[in-house]
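Milestone 3.1: sequence recovery, worked example.
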């Protein structure tokens, strides 16, 4: 998955062809329109207040694609809280995307920095946010064979891909398998995403006080590893067509899997963040978008219609609204608004 998506020359994300939006391979909440970023900006403005108005207020985004979300957030923040001295950091290793982001964000250039890796950032106060980043992090595929978990490897033989199953190789995977147990049907196949602990240790070094907002599709652990979900969650996307074979059109299709939000929250907790909220995207946007919606209603013109339609798409229960979830974890301050979900730790199946 790592090679298919991120190989410098042949990886899916190496090609300049658009990935996100109508002309690409898949739709994201960002590509629906500016409503998503505008509502997130309202949330950020509150967080800025809750943190005691830090100056600068650092916003770190990873997986920013062409900078559209950054543009929508920065534009709205400037209207909402012009007195906020924000700085937007984008983590982007690919040069072609860096150029696209600089171009899109030219009007904010004084307040934008683009870094190839997060490791250059330290001790910031503010927010780390991502939309559909974690689902693009590579996974290992495992399968229960004769009562034993086996790990999938892809080998190349005479120019063809060949699947082979071997004993799990890394301590991280071995330890996860022990916690998962073997109470599943024969040939049950699923995924495990390695490296989240080490990734969030870097995020925690960059953001020493603030909020992590993760938006992605997925479920808490018992839903992810539901005995009925016997073929895992891996999906491929090309020209808006969904598939399940990652060995087809390698480097030309996206490969993604759902997020185990229990694993994600635990990785953040391990680095000092506390779960504040975990809720479906529809509820998150409806709750934090109240002021934005009210403003839209009070000054309604025919030009407001696209924003209303975007909001409906983003919150539709059969589409992005319930499939996507938002996890918020905080460190060094307490968000003033109570969580939307009662007992988010319980929902995430994490002992308090
Ligand atoms: C599914 S796309 C989402 C794009 C965008 N956030 C949106 O919602 O439209 C996933 C993005 O994550 C980026 N990505 C994956 N791993 C990354 C990493 N280690 N560092 C920076 N970006 C990464 C990919 O390059 C890609 O732009």
């Amino acid at each position: 998955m790592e090679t298919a998506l991120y190989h410098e020359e042949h990886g899916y994300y190496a090609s300049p062809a658009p990935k996100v939006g109508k002309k690409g391979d898949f739709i994201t909440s960002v590509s629906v329109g500016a409503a998503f970023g505008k509502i997130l900006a309202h949330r950020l403005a509150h967080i800025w207040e809750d943190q005691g108005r830090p100056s600068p207020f650092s916003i770190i985004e990873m997986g920013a694609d062409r900078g559209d979300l950054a543009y929508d957030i920065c534009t709205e923040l400037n209207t909402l809280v012009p007195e906020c001295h924000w700085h937007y950091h984008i983590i982007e290793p690919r040069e072609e995307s860096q150029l696209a982001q600089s171009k899109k964000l030219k009007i904010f250039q004084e307040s934008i920095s683009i870094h190839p890796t997060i490791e250059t950032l330290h001790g910031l106060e503010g927010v780390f946010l991502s939309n559909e980043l974690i689902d693009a992090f590579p996974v290992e595929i495992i399968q229960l064979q004769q009562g034993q978990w086996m790990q999938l490897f892809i080998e190349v033989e005479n120019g063809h891909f060949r699947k082979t199953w071997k004993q799990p190789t890394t301590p991280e995977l071995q330890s996860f398998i022990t916690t998962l147990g073997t109470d599943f049907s024969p040939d049950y196949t699923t995924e495990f995403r390695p490296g989240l602990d080490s990734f969030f240790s870097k995020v925690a070094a960059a953001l020493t006080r603030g909020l992590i907002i993760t938006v992605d599709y997925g479920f808490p652990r018992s839903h992810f590893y539901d005995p009925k979900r016997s073929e895992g969650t891996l999906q491929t996307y090309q020209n808006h067509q969904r598939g399940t074979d990652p060995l087809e059109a390698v480097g030309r299709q996206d490969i993604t899997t759902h997020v185990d939000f229990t694993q994600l929250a635990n990785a953040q907790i391990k680095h000092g963040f506390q779960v504040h909220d975990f809720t479906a995207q529809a509820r998150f946007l409806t709750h934090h978008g109240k002021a934005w919606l009210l403003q839209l209603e009070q000054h309604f013109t025919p030009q407001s219609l696209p924003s209303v339609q975007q909001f409906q798409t983003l919150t539709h229960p059969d589409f992005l609204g319930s499939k996507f979830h938002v996890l918020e974890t905080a460190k060094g301050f307490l968000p003033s608004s109570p969580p939307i979900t009662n007992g988010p730790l319980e929902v995430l199946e994490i002992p308090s």
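The chain is about 35% helix and 25% strand. The chain has a mean pLDDT of 96.
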